[in-house]
Every structure is written in C-alpha cells, then in structure tokens.
Amino acid sequence: MRFFAILLVIVNHYGWGLPGGFIGVDVFFVISGYVITLQIHPSIIKNEFLFVDFWQRRFNRIAPALIFMLTVVCVAFTLILAPNDLSRLYGNLIANIFSLSNVFIFFEYGNYFSSLTKEAPLLHTWSLAVEEQFYIFWPVILILICRIKNSGWFFIALLSLLLFSLLFSEMAAEKYAKASYYLLPMRFFELLTGCILAIYIQNISVKLGKRSKEFLSATGVVLILYSAVTFDRGTVFPGFNAVLPVLGVSFFICAQGARVNRFFSIRLFNTLGQMSYSLYLWHWPFLVALVYLEKNSELNKFIAMVFVFIFSWVSLNYIEAPMRKIQGSTNKRYIYKYLALLVLFLIVLSSAGVFFKGFEQMYESQHRLAFNAVTSSTNESKCLAADRVSNRGLLERCTHSFGSEKVKALLVGDSHANHFKEFLKRMAKSKGNMRLDEHTSESCPPVFDLKFRASQESASHADACYYKNLKSKEIIERGAYDYVILAASWPNDILVISNNGTLSIEKSMYLYEEAFQKTVTMIGKTGAKVIVFDKTPGTGELKYNCPIKKIILEDDRKCLVKVKLNRRFDLLLQSLHERNELMLVSIKELFCKNSVCKLEFEGIPLYRDNSHLNKVASNKLSRMYEEKNGNIFD
Asked: Closest Cα partner for 332 from 98, 132, 50, 64?
C-alpha cells in the first residue's frame, strides 16, 4: 500500500494523470499513525515507554535519508537557482532542520497548487514536518488517554478526539484553505485514524469474516482510486473530502489476509514499498530541476524517474537500512557526528544565503534590480485581507496621505486592485494634497449586493466576499470620497449563489454584470468619480519569471506572452466608459500589442507571479501612463 500511495503522488506531480493523486499523502498519514501506535501502545500499557528511545528511533528512520537529500538539493540548486529563489530554498532548508517546513511553506508560498510551488525544491517536505510534529505530541496524548481504565470511556475519548479533529479540519478547509492543507491540526484526524486502528486491529480482525474482509479490501482500494480520479485542485481539502481516502486505507488495513491485500504484498510491491520514503524524498527535486531549467519534456521526465529510482535505491540500501541496524554506542556516536556536521553545514550555508539574499552580490547591479523587482509586493502593509478578516473596516496602515488630504480616494477590489496600490500612490503623490485609502480582499471583485464566487472558490468564500463588499459599500457611503477606484481580476467563470442554490455560469454572469452596473451607479450617486481598471493580462504557467530565467540561463529569449482577453467584460466596461458612467483605465496599452504582451521593461520583470504586477512595475507603469494620458486624478 505504501508503494501504491507514492505511485499516486508521483503520477499526479509528474502530470501523468490522476488530478487527485495528492491524496497519496493522506494514505501515508493513516499508515504512519497505524505503524507508530502499533509500536508504542503496548509499551505505554506496560509503563515501559521511554520518550528518548521513541524519538531516537524516529530520528534514525527519518533524519539520515532526509539530511542526505537536503544536502544534495542544497548543493545542486545553489548552482542553478536565481538569488530570489535561492533565498527561499535556504529558508526552507532551515525550517526543515527544525521540523517546521510546513509552516514555512504556508507563509512563503501559500496555495499548494499555485505556480510558485512548482519551482520550490523542498515543497514536498511539508508532509514530513506534519509527521514529525505529530510524533512529538501523540505519545503524550496517548499516555494521558491510557490513564482512562474503563475501556468504554477510553474508546469514547478516542472517538471524541477523532470527531473533534475532523470537524475542525472541515471548518478550517472551508475558511482557511491554505493553512488547512499544510498544518498539523487540520491533518490530525488522518493520523489519528491510523492510531485508533492500531489499538483495535486485533479485535477487528477477529470479528471480520472472510467475505467481509474481501469486501472491505476491494472497497478500500476503490475509495482511494475514486478520490485520486475525481478530486482536483479545486476540491475543498482536507476536511470531509479527506474522509474518502482515509476510509479507503482504513478498510484496507482492516482486511488483512484478503486477496487484494495479498496482491499488494507480493515481493515486487514489498520491495518498492520499502523504497517509498526515499521515492517521496527524491521524486520532487528532480521534477523541479526540470521545470526550472525548462527541460520538462515527457522524455526528460521519464529519464528523471530513472535517476529518482537510482537515488532512492542508494538511499534505502546505504542510509536507511544501515541506520535501522545500527548497534553499539561507538557506531552511533560516529554516525551522529557526521550527521551533525552535515546539519551544521546546511544551517551555516542557508543562514548566510538568507542574510545575503541568495548571494545576489555575485551578479551585476542591473541583474540585482531584476531579482529584487520580481519579489517586490504591493501588499507589504498587509492591507489585502484574507477570508477570515474580509469584513474588517479601514485600517490606519491602509491609509496613505500626501499633503492636506483635500481630495480623498478609495481603492476597492481584490488582489488585482492591491497590485495597483503603488500605481495610485505615485499618482496621488504627483497630484498632491490627497489621501488614498485601500479596502481589498483576496479573490473578491467589487460587485455589491450579490453573493457569488469564482468556480474554483468554496461556498464559504462567497459568504466572505459578500460581507466584505457590504463593508466596502458602507465605507463608500460614509466616506465622502472624491474618487472610488475599482479593480479586480474580473473572472468570467462566476457562479451566483441564490436562495435556490448555485446558478449556471451563463445566468450568473448576466446577474454579475447587472450587479456591477448597479454598483457603479450607486457609487456615482455619492458624488464620487468612478475609476475602473480593466483586467491585467495573465502570463500563463511560469512565464512571469522569463526575465530572471534569461539572466540565469544566459540566453537571449524574447520575454513575450500571448494573452487571452476578457472580451465580454471589457465590452461592458467600454460601454459604461462611453456613457460617462466611469473612467476606464487600461494598462494593457503600455506593454501589449495585438494580444502579445511584454514581461519586462529594460530587463526588469513586470510580474511577481502569473497574474500580479510587482511593486517596481506598478510604479513604473504609473509613470508611463501619466506621461501618455495624464494623471487619472486630474
């Protein structure tokens, strides 16, 4: 089953199918909880459990192969990554040393499925950190629960903990999607399921007949495969959706001796299962290297897999297996000394790399400007709200004054509004005697009095956006603004949530456009001039850092991209502009021609990811726009 799980993950990551193959990690979590509890529960019952021995065994099992992989990745990627990406890698290395990789990745990369993660060599170590954190807390929790002598109350305590952690995971998956994917509290129920199985597996096996086991085994595999085939990046996860693969592997474990189980126990699968940990460690860095070097053809991915198996075999036979058999204090001290030296090397190099920003001093000044530009964000003051705080009012740090505040302007919208903040601040400063306020929230276009979401967003997000827009409307009505600026990604896959359920995209888009026109009218009635930015062109998968790749790979590529325009919404904006209901600002004219857009100006990148302008570009485009069209506040 462990090889089956890693196979799902590899097929998913390498783009060979199974959009939900990421659930292989959930299978691993259940198995880990099961195996660990099988080991520690008997010794806890007998009062023979020692924390030091347990954690030492866990260290011997996980750390040597991980440290070996981290060292190779550190050396190899230091030679190929740009300073901005290298600095991230070094930060992730340090986080791995302290079992906090999942926390680092959550804060640094956010969405697991974002384009940025495809070039993160240590992205996959988030799950290892979850397990390592679990190993710290679970023995303590189990010892406390084992003090309950009544078997009935003991079971109720375990079941209550399981249900509570599942409900917590579901709530978090709906409201805090990014955090819930990476962090232990939201994954706890998956590991706990395996733990409970380990405690009761003997009783379960005795009570299950042959037919029941055959049924459970087949059903378990079907549930896992169904999840791998039907889930995708838009699935709310983990939460209740994770119950399917968790139940699947649980059924499989309970059906020991069934024919399907025996099939998965043949020698080949056993051998590959023993390699599963090393396969997991090595499959992702090789893929990231191909993606980063833009060599990720199917042939190259196949060749990479050959090397993945070679490195995994070496890791299993020369690192993992010997560490399991290590005996004698002299041998232990010898091995631990060299592991400590490798860890010290990683910490020193990574700390220096973070401090010196990926050793950008090795590059000429123009290239350093490019590296700094691509990582610059207009959200440094954290004015772009997440769902959990989307209905907050104006914050003091989100107000920018330039002189006497005689003229007031308000920026409203989503992250695409936020990336125009530097554009507008420069305009306001140029105008003088202005105040610019910002009220923005992730993935929430400024369309009032309508509950909607983009097709990939959750239902809870529709609620959060609705209340955020109510707050924006209230701020506009009370603020006596001279200008209100609306900007967003203006998605064309909107789904409206009505009392009768979710409407079709076609019907939703009609209501969405109608509500937008009413929003513009409502703002106009307050006496404010409405300024609307049209959609910023997206760059496509991993095209935004073309200027950086041109420096690193030392080629003369043209950093251009053909974009798809949102013609339907563009026509609506143009119509309202022609009727003088709003002022339309289009920045596309500054760097796009015939749907082909530049990704750089004089070697400086325009974007910080696939769709958002970086801070340097936002300022640059503001200057260019004012020179061509005048100040938008005139």
From this structure: 64
- Give pairs for 572-578: CB < 8 Å, separation 24+: 572/513, 572/516, 572/517, 573/532, 573/534, 576/517, 576/520, 576/532, 577/532
- Among candidate residues 165, 180, 251, the one with its CA nearest the CA of residue 216: 251
* CA gap 138, 188 in Å, rounded: 10
Does residue 8 contact residue 228 with C-beta atoms inside 8 Å? yes
Strands 529-533 and 583-585: parallel
| Peptide bond before residue 238 is cis, with ω within 30 degrees of 0 | yes
pTM of the entire structure? 0.87
Q: Spell out the residues 6+ positions from residue 459 whose beta carbon is closer than 8 angstroms to its own.
A: 174, 453, 497
Q: Is the CB of residue 62 less than 8 Å from the CB of residue 94?
A: no
Give the tens place of pLDDT for each residue, 212-266: 889 999 999 999 999 999 999 888 889 999 999 999 999 999 988 888 888 888 8
Distance of alpha carbon 431 from its chain centroid, rounded? 39
Which parts of 480-545 fold into alpha helices (H)? 505-525
Q: Are 619 and 423 in contact (CB under 8 A)?
A: yes
- Which residue is associated with the tokens 């799902």? 8
The answer to whether residues 387 and 461 touch, using CB atoms and an 8 Å cutoff, is yes
Distance CA 241, CA 225 (A): 14
Q: CB within 8 A of 633, min separation 6: which ones?
A: 407, 409, 427, 428, 431, 434, 483
Whether residue 542 contacts residue 115, with contact meaning beta carbons closer than 8 Å, is answered with: yes
User: How many Å apart are CA 575 and CA 584, to the nearest integer?
Assistant: 10
* pLDDT tens, residue by residue, 379-390: 777 888 875 555
Question: What digits encode the pLDDT tens for the residues 504-519?
Answer: 999 999 999 999 999 9
- As beta bridge partners, residue 497 has 502
